[in-house]
Amino acid sequence: MESKWYTVQVITNYEQNVKEALENREIDGDNSEIEEVFVPIIDHITKTGKRRKKSLFPGYVFVKVNMSDKAWYVIRNTQYVTGIVGSSGQRTKPTPVPQSQIDNIIKKIAEASIETESMNSSNLELSKVEFEIGDIVLINSGSFQGKSGEVKEISIEKQTATVELEFFGRKTPITLPLKEVSLR
Questions:
Q1: How far is CA 103 from CA 6, 80, 106, 171, 182, in A?
Q2: Is the dihedral of CA 9, 11, 15, 20 positive or negative?
Q3: Domains, the chain, with CATH or none
Q4: Share of the chain above pLDDT 70, in %
Q5: pLDDT tens digits for 35-91?
């Protein structure tokens, strides 16, 4: 059976706790059926000008899993989880989220990251670019922190770099502020 994305409802502000708990849970000994846990987080600037991280969907976590009975049981019985969207609660399996919707969420996160940086651009100097197209770079802040990918495009005017990340088993181009990217 193929793994699919599901929306898990959690207690608001406990999304990261659930993500860590699910990533560390094993369903069948060494063979975990949970492939990936995704909490869409964006940076935003408050009215006072402070930069904060904010969940794009408060109270929800996305899980890529082969939804077997064991996986379903483990997810439902994880602390702070209140349910799985699309399940009526009468032993019916939940409805998966289409990959296209997950791709749209990733695109929104990337766009929000660029928007936040442009709002902060009054404090930016022109960044010195220490990498070039084709280099493998590391993302050192923002929603994709810790991921690495290949540089596909650099825009000095916009202060951005387009990096191709392997995300959810697919190569996805993400445009990021230069300040968030460094040579690996």
A1: 14, 26, 5, 11, 24
A2: negative
A3: 4-97 (3.30.70.940), 122-183 (2.30.30.30)
A4: 82
A5: 889 898 887 666 676 777 888 889 999 999 988 888 888 888 899 999 888 876 666
Take residue 97 and report the two structure tokens written for it.
């989220």
Q: What is the 3-state secondary structure (H, E, C) of the chain?
A: CCCEEEEEEECCCCHHHHHHHHHHCCCECCECCEEEEECCEEEEECCCCCEEEEECCCCEEEEEECCCHHHHHHHHCCCCEEEECCCCCCCCCCCCECHHHHHHHHHHHHHHHHHHHHHCHHHCCCCCCCCCCCCEEEECCCCCCCCEEEEEEEECCCCEEEEEEEECCEEEEEEEEHHHEEEC
Give residue for tokens 């990918």. 149
More confident residue, 48 or 184: 184
- The model's pTM is 0.61
pLDDT at 102 over 70: yes
